[in-house]
Amino acid sequence: MPSTTPSAMCGLIDWSASPPTPAEWINSSSICARLVTVNKQGRREVLELSIDRPLTIGRHPSWYVPSPAFVSLPFGRIQSRCNRSSYVVPDIVASGIHCKLYAVRPSNGGVLVSCSDLSTNGLLLNGHKIRKTSILLMDGDTIQIPHSQKFECIHTQKSPQKANIFDPTPPRNPSLKTKRIGRYLVTSHCLGSGSFATVHLAMDTSASRQAACKTIKRKSKDKVDKVMKEVDILLSLDHPNINRVWAARHDNNFVHIFLELCTGGDLFSYIVGHEDSRLCESEAKYIMFQLVKGLKYLHDRLISHRGMFRPRPENILLYTPGPYPRIQIADFGLARPKAYQETFNVCGTVSYLPPEGILALDHKHLGYVGMPADCWSAGVIMYIMLAGGHPFDYDKQDGESTWYSYRPSEDFDHSQLGDLSQTSVQSDRMVKKRIVHGEVEFPSYIWSSIPDARMLCGNLLVYDPLDRATVHSALRSDWFSRELPELEAAYRERIGSS
Question: SUPFAM superfamilies under this entry (predicted)?
Fold first, then answer.
């Protein structure tokens, strides 16, 4: 590496003389991962990666590290202050900017290390070719510029591997395992788990990209035809703001669904990472524009998502890290075709249910329609992005009763809410009461300066579903239409034409 590059500023440590001790590996809580490499001179070097400092690798040198400070132009036209590399590989096979790495903290804990390939000739991930895509680097993974330097990723915060579909009981120090399912090589790297499914990292060896493998254990009463009919609905969806289902396989015990991998974490973690947990109006507008376009795509096909928003909303994902992100609506386990029809199967999380959903939850003879419910949930998300708090789910106010002003149906089953503590049940009562009986407050110190946003958010949070804004009327709102050409141009430039 040229001596002109300021090593201290790019987080580069030369440990060729004395190997690090375990304490030196984790000497700073801000360091999430390290990339270990050996340069052309045979010197061992370590590159540090933290939440607030992305790392760029390429042929073009830089006098300073590109920081997370970006010049933000309207509606997602982002340009970095530096188009050069914080770590230089002086090799003709390396692109000027070959790849960029981020550390992301998702809402379910831990750290994601995301690597975006920006090169002309791709990268090798553990020997597998990847091109023009974003990947997750797990502890021990290696990336290599073809015919050039190799980098080993070492996570400083390690968690035990789960091997749900590989071993009934994960070993104390498990080694990485793989399982071939069709054209996919599924690894024992577990990205998440729930009551009914686990998600593992997989490699699509034919398409040179990673994928997420969602494995659902089949119940004995499940009919294969019924399960695959629901999967076929998901396979037919193709929109830049809908998490794509690439393929599905099943056997006697499991259904495996292979999904487009998003590497930027989830939307709520992104919001919380900002000052006062609020986004600026232009970024909130760009994200909301994508969300409404994604919902319009679903509603035009008479599909409602219903389960879109949850306490840990991993189902609104950032496709890659960075400001003005591309978002994807994910987790369609609760998606419903014929969404214009009334349903009596209430699902989702209390704080994101519309009034008619709360009433249907407490009174089983009542139903609600999925599409207006999606619009209500989108309004809640819009409120959170701009106000930094939930419109209904907040601390108890003085004089506020924790009980309803009406009694729930006698056949109401609290098990629908999951395994909740008494405190959680009381909190849900308050939230439900506010949704059913209260009106949304729009504090003037936030909303008076953005009246068009206030109008759209209020129209999405209308009590009566028949009077509530639809995705079509939302896209025609003044908040979007006043700058629609700029929004559409930024959307086409960064995301696609849908």
Answer: Protein kinase-like (PK-like), SMAD/FHA domain
Residues with Cβ within 8 Å of 192's Cβ and at least 6 positions away in sequence, in order, are: 108, 198, 199, 314
Q: CATH 1.10.510.10: does it fit domain 267-494?
A: yes
Was domain 12-155 assigned CATH 3.40.50.2000? no
Over residues 115-139, the pLDDT tens digits come to 999 999 999 999 999 999 999 999 9
The two tokens of residue 147 are 């015919």
- Which residue is it, tokens 């070959």? 98
Torsion-angle region of 41 (φ positive above 0: left; ψ -120 to 50: alpha; else: beta): alpha
Can you give the pTM of this predicted structure? Answer: 0.82
Instruction: Give the residue numbers of the binding site.
Output: 214
Write down the pLDDT at residue 56: 94
Q: Where are the domains of the chain?
A: 12-155, 178-260, 267-494
**CATH classification (class only), 178-260:** alpha beta
| Selection from 292, 137, 133 nearest residue 208 by Cα | 133
Rounded-to-integer distance, Cα 400 and Cα 41, Å = 70
Which residue is associated with the tokens 């132009």?
73
For the record, the structure tokens of 298 come out as: 């679903």
Dig out the tokens for 61 from the structure.
């040198």
* Top-confidence residue, 230 or 217: 217
| Alpha carbon distances (Å) from 200 to 181, 331, 406 | 12, 14, 45
Summarize the annotated binding site for ATP as residue ranges: 214
